[in-house]
Amino acid sequence: MKTDFKKILRELYSLDPSLEEKEEKILQILEEMITNKPDTHFDEKFKEELRAKVLLEVSKKQGSDDKESEWKKAIAYLLLGASGVAFAAFMFVTVSPTGTVGPNNN
């Protein structure tokens, strides 16, 4: 039995002592996990490719965020201008030349 397996088994038994009776099955599962574990290597080439992809995605998102914020600003200015014009029209219609509010009853 591998030393790592003994350590894993001790930890499992400390969590749940009833697992001791299933030691054979647990060892079989551990062996399968070790066998099926993919051999992944994190090398410089992978690091540079990942970095390039991340930077590309970030630059794409920043470009779309800039366009989106420009549209939001344009809509805000349009709404502000429209509300200013509506207020001016309201004041023009409701305020008489004498400065009183309401219909002019001379």
Report on this model:
The protein has 106 residues and is mostly helical. Helices cover 74% and strands 0% of the residues. The model has no long low-confidence stretch (mean pLDDT 79).
Q: Strand pairing plus helix content: what structural class?
A: mainly alpha
| Through-space gap between termini | 110 Å
Major β-sheet annotation = none
The portion of residues forming beta strands comes to under 5%
- Radius of gyration (Å): 37 Å
Low-confidence stretches: none
As a percent range, the share of helical residues equals over 70%
Tell me the series of helices and strands, N- to C-terminal.
HHH
Anisotropy-based shape: elongated
Name the features.
106 residues, mainly alpha, 3 helices, 74% helix, elongated
Topology summary:
Layout: H1 3-15, H2 23-36, H3 44-94
A few lines on this structure:
This protein is mostly helical and 106 residues long. The chain contains three helices and no strands. It is 74% helix and 0% strand.
